[in-house]
C-alpha cells in the first residue's frame, strides 16, 4: 500500500524534519555528554561526524523513503526487491522500530522532567535559588517514581494523541512558530550568560578548545594515581550523539522522506536541517557552560545538568519566572515534535500492513512504550544501582542501569549500525539509475558526486573504524 499523505511544501518537510532533529538531544543530551567527555575535542569530533557521516546518511534515508513511499520496513522491502536483492534488507526497518521503542521509552521520561519544571517555574520555586537548592529540587523530583510516572504518562498521552490523528495536522503550526521562538530564547540565554555570568569565556573555552587528551584519555590524572588508558568511547559517544541528534539510523527521517514531494532537492534541504540542528546544540552549550562555571558546578555531572543550571540562571534574572516557564514549555514542544518521528514509523507500518486504524496502532504501541518507560523511571531511584547486564563481566554494559543501557545501546550501537547499513544499501545496492532519479543527479552534478563518495567510502569506513576501536575495548570476559 502506498502512503497517501504528503507534505504541503518543501518548507513543511524542513520544518517537520527539523522538528524531529531538534529536541532533547540538543538541549539536554549534547551539553551533558560534551561535559562528560571533556568539551572541545568532543564537540569537534561531533561536528565532524554530523558533516561527514550524518548529512550523507540523512540524504540516503530521505532518498530511500521517498522512493519507497511507505513506512521504513515496507520501503526497504520494496527497494530491496526492486534491486533484486533479498528482502532481509527490511531488517533495517525492524531495527529502527526497536530503536524507536527503546528511545521513546526514556525520551518520554526526560520530557516528563521538562513538563514537571513548567509548574515549578511558574510558581517561582527557583527565584533566587542557590546551586545546592536547584540540585535538591532536581533530586527530589527524580527520587519520586510516582511523580516521574505521572509526567511520563502525560507526555506519552500527548504523543499518542497527535500520532493517532496523523502527523501533518498541527505540526506545521507547532514547528513554524515554536521552533524559532525556542531558537531566539536560546540566543537570549546565551547573551544573558555572556553579560551576567562573569564566566562566559570559560564556557567558550570549554566548548571550543580542542584538548584531545580529555577525549582519548578520560579521567587521566597520574598525579592522583589515576592511570591514563586510551579509549575510543568518547569518539563513539560523539558519533552516537550525531546520529541521535539528527534522528538518523532508525528510519525516522526515512519515514518523513516518504511524504516528501518528488521535486524537492535533497542535498540543500538536508544541509539546512543539519546546520539548524548543530546550531541549537551549540547555543545550548554556550548558554549552559558559563552558568556551570559561574556556580562552581561540575560539567560532567550527568543527565541533570540542564535541569540544574538553567533554573539557577532563571532564578537570578529579572523576569526569570516568565522566561523560565517559556523555556520549559518550548523544550517540551521540541521534545514532542521529536517524539512524533519516533512513533510514526511503526504506526505507519501497522496501518499499511495490518490494516489497523491509526488510533489503535498509536494507542497500542504507545502503551508498550509507556510500560517500557517504567524501567527508565526506576533507574533514577529505586533501581539506580540495578545493573541487569552485570553478569556479562567486565565491560561497558556491566555498570549500567536500564536507562543507561537503553541510551547506550540505541545511540552508540543501533543507530550507527543502522546508518552503516543504510549507507551500504544506498551506495552499493540500489541501482545507479534509481539513485540518480531520486537525487536528481545529473552525472555532472557535483553535490551528487560528493554525496556518492561520502556515502560509499567515508561513511561506512568512518562508522566501522570508530565502532571497531570502541568495541575492541568492550573487554568481554
Ligand atoms: N533527534 C531527537 C533529539 O535530538 O532530541 C531525538 C530522536 C528523534 C532520535 C527521532 C532518533 C529519532 F529517530
From TrEMBL:
Gene Ontology MF annotations: symporter activity
Family annotation (Pfam families): SNF
Subcellular location: Membrane
Keyword terms, alphabetized: Membrane, Symport, Transmembrane, Transmembrane helix, Transport
A single GO cellular-component term on record: membrane
Segments traversing the membrane: 12-34, 40-60, 92-118, 146-167, 174-195, 235-259, 271-293, 321-349, 361-380, 413-430, 451-474
Domain of life: Bacteria
Membrane topology type: Multi-pass membrane protein
InterPro entries documented for this protein: Na/ntran_symport (IPR000175), SNS_sf (IPR037272), YocR/YhdH-like (IPR047218)
PANTHER family hit by this protein: TRANSPORTER
NCBIfam families, A to Z: Na_transp
Stated family: Belongs to the sodium:neurotransmitter symporter (SNF) (TC 2.A.22) family.
Protein name per Swiss-Prot or TrEMBL: Transporter
The organism of origin for this protein: Candidatus Venteria ishoeyi
